[in-house]
Amino acid sequence: MAFGSWLRKNAEKYLMEAAQESVARRYPEYCAESYREKGLAHFFWKNVFVPVYLAIPWPVRRKIILFTSYPGGKRPSWKKFG
Amino acid sequence: MSSDNLRIIIIGGGAGGISAASTSKTVAPGASVTVFTEYEDVAYSPCGIPFVLGKEIPDFERLFLQTPEHYASIGIDLRLRTAVTGIDLKGRTVSVGAEKYPWDRLIIATGWEYDKPDIPGINLEGLHYIKNIRRAMEFDKLLDGVKKVVVVAATPLGIEISGNLAHRGIETHLVDEGAWLMSDVADPDIMEPVQKSLEEFGTIIHFGEKVLEFRGRDGKVSSVVTTGREIECDVAIIATHKKPNNRISREAGIEIGSTGGIVVDDHMRTSVKDVYAAGDCCEIIHGVTDIPIQGLSGSHAYSQGRVAGANAAGADRAYDPVFVPWGMVGGQVQMGGVSLGETLHKALGIPHIVAAATGISRARYYPGVSRIRVKLIADPVTHRVLGAQMSGGEGIKERADFLAFAIKRGATIEDFAWMENVYSPPIGALMEPIALAAQAGLAELAKNK
């Protein structure tokens, strides 16, 4: 698996889990308990990656996301909105 | 090269492939257009399958939109049950076993496949995947003798199939790792009425449970083991996520992006000259975030196919980044949205405010009135609306389409708060629920000042 795909897959999983937990705290009446994996890798992503990612200012983080989203960091030609 | 002499080959006969073929033929009537599909049929609506299985639609024949004879009559060479096994980019051919077929323009529309869980028992008989109409017809006959089903994953398909099978009178268990339905795209307050409706239909939902194993007797599934229990069943339906079906493209050396989809530009051109792609096999830029995404709807595949087909035949058409209006029915409740909801905004860490309200679909005194929950997500600085989610008894699809159109054009919370709306007791309430949500958003913004 290419680095971009590996990073995206893991980042998506753990950022989603953190977001789901936050949203579940906001709407506890509508939520059950999620299943969560345990182990060292999970500990790292949850307790190191997610807080570091969320501490980076959004404009910088956005650039990182976009750079890692395209092969070689090169965005194909598409119209831009907003 | 004159477009009349073009040899256009399309791999895949789903929405993307078939619309590409028809459009190519319209743009360049003299071109030879050949569609290869590994399946027995083309031009049917796979999205309708859960509703036939649930007996909402009486038969599968209604899902067919066109016949192979129709495509032959307009000059499209349709090769059914013909799987392309390789693409030679230098020699400009595709292989079907030992045979090679030359192309001047190639359109890849190989679609998607299920992300199969790598767990014990995954190859047992009795595990079903809803995709191909012929297999669904066979499954439908089998269901007549089935008493108990386990559906794995509360994805859109998992929800549709669970509601429909429960409606058919089969004891249906839905197992999901999340804390609410569709927890990786939708928000819990939006999905709560859907959950209630499914449960009223008789679906038994097991949240927060991971499927560990399928157990069987005589090679056939007899139970599903989760982290919480063992559920006996006659059949299990795997409704896990869709992933791009890109083996032959990857092997050929066509550029694949971080989603696993083929990288294309707004003309649906891949990294290789004269090779186009459309539908679920490729990744498309998201209009709000600018991030490539993959796994959209049949209507997206259809539109992308039209663009790819037109350009392959010599036209110059562009496809816009997507804002992804979506909608569906779970039980008797409609749900839908545009772009990202609250959970996904949080996951990406995009600064946002949440504006939500519950309104009604018709005049409060009119028979059939139902509650409509609308949630808008907006940028706290520019007030531009970035996304929306909704659920309710009716009118969700129309609201999702309207919101997608308006969000694409940069509409703000203020625009929606002061929008005009139709008021007519049988079809629209005095206060449009979208406007109510936006007004709640203005109050939220005022609080944060």
**Helix percentage of chain A:** 55-70%
Could you say which overall geometry of chain A the principal axes of the C-alpha atoms support? Answer: globular
Low-confidence stretches of chain B: none
Count of strand segments of chain A: 0
Biggest chain-to-chain interface with counts: A-B, 40 and 49 residues
Specify the biggest β-sheet of chain B. Answer: 5 strands, parallel
Largest sheet of chain A: none
Number of strands of chain B: 26
Secondary-structure element order of chain A, as H and E? Answer: HHH
Shape of chain B: globular
Fold and architecture overview:
The complex is a heterodimer of chains A (82) and B (449). Chain A is built from three helices and no strands. Chain A is an all-alpha fold and 82 residues long. The mean pLDDT of chain A is 91. Helices cover 63% and strands 0% of the residues of chain A. Chain A is globular and about 45 Å long. The mean pLDDT of chain B is 96. In chain B, strand 1, helix 1 and strand 2 form a beta-alpha-beta unit. Chain B is 27% helix and 26% strand. Chain B is globular, with a radius of gyration of 23 Å. The longest helix of chain B is centred in the last third of the chain and has 16 residues. Chain B is α/β, with parallel strands linked by helices. At the A-B interface, helix 1 and helix 3 of A face helix 6 and helix 9 of B.
